[in-house]
From TrEMBL:
It comes from Knoellia remsis. One of its GO terms (biological process) is carbohydrate metabolic process. One of its GO terms (molecular function) is hydrolase activity, hydrolyzing O-glycosyl compounds. It is a peripheral membrane protein. This is ABC-2 type transport system ATP-binding protein.
Length: 293
């Protein structure tokens, strides 16, 4: 079943075509990561799907409804992670989670959410005293307290320390295991690789590539790089489509362990940067001066 369907979506701001004819389907239960450089149109797309922004053209369906005309019942089925805890400085995370939970029909238990986002120690402290990363955890907690079927996460781990990011990934995997559909935007390629079933890369409001993280842009069939250190001749690097064969040959040559052996394939970040390269800095390149002959 399709949770989100987008056909020919267009959004313009003055002369800027922020979203320029986007087509995309996201399946129920899928974790989908939308990737793209700054200004690619990710937030605009997500805000249209959330019903917070009007579109200029195209068809959009989210959980079977058009977000531009959706009602409160529909809104209760989706979870949105906003930068919402600002302005609530005198309250505590537990207070704001408890009052938000009351607006939903079947909310999660406040204690469960506090634990899921790792805010146990700060649950009863004023929000004013929370760090940036702790506030973001609260935002995530507010986004999931209503037990939504679909969660929108716009750059959810910005400002998280490495441990908090790992904890958050565990939380997302848990939601996905319960069947929650998740649409995530992120600039962290490792996050997309860890979490997403599929990724979509957009630039200038258009979809450039759509695949699993492992296959994006033909990644799975790209050559591997094998490096090793030879005591006599120094470091060697070879690109090959048959790395096992090369490593087997090296193992024979060195009679066992190959010194400082590394076998690597292009990372998702390498592939992503290659995909977006033609679209980055468009229009902002300095005009080269003509050199007189
Ligand atoms: N309210 C607005 N008014 C005018 N232009 C806007 C507005 N919101 C976004 N834009 C423009 O639309 C384009 C897409 O912006 P958007 O915020 O959707 O990109 P993004 O992919 O989410 O970027 P980032 O990764 O920086 O968050 C940009 O050129 C941006 O300047």
């Amino acid at each position: 079943m399709t949770a989100i369907s987008i056909r020919g979506l267009v959004k313009t701001y003055g002369a800027t075509r922020a979203v320029d004819g986007l087509d995309l389907d996201i399946e129920t239960g899928e974790v989908f990561a939308l990737l793209g450089p700054n200004g690619a149109g990710k937030s605009t797309t997500v805000e249209i799907l959330e019903g917070f922004r009007d579109r200029d053209a195209g068809e959009v369906s989210v959980l079977g409804a058009d977000p531009a005309r959706a009602d409160r019942l529909w809104r209760n089925r989706i979870g949105i992670v906003l930068q919402s805890s600002s302005g609530l400085d005198l309250l505590t995370p537990r207070e704001i989670l408890t009052s938000t939970a009351k607006t939903y029909a079947a909310p999660r238990a406040v204690d469960d959410v506090v634990a899921a986002v790792g805010l146990e120690e700060k649950a009863d402290s004023r929000i004013a005293g929370l760090s940036g990363g702790q506030r973001r955890r609260l935002d995530v907690g507010l986004g999931i307290i209503g037990r939504p079927e679909l969660v929108f996460l716009d750059e959810p781990t910005t400002g998280f320390d490495p441990q908090a990011r790992r904890d958050f990934w565990g939380l997302i995997r848990g939601l996905a295991a319960e069947g929650t559909t998740i649409l995530l935007t992120t600039h962290y390629l490792d996050e997309a690789e860890q979490l997403a079933d599929r990724v979509g890369v957009i630039a200038a409001g258009r979809l450039l590539a759509l695949d699993t993280p492992a296959n994006l842009g033909g990644r799975a069939s790209e050559e591997a790089t094998v490096t090793w250190l030879d005591e006599a001749s120094g470091r060697h690097t070879e690109k090959t489509s048959t790395p096992t064969e090369l490593v087997t040959r090296l193992a024979e040559q060195y009679h066992g362990e190959v010194p400082e052996l590394v076998v690597s394939r292009p990372t998702l970040e390498d592939t992503y940067l290659r995909l977006i390269a033609p679209h980055v800095g468009q229009g902002s390149e300095p005009i080269a001066e003509e050199v007189p002959a």
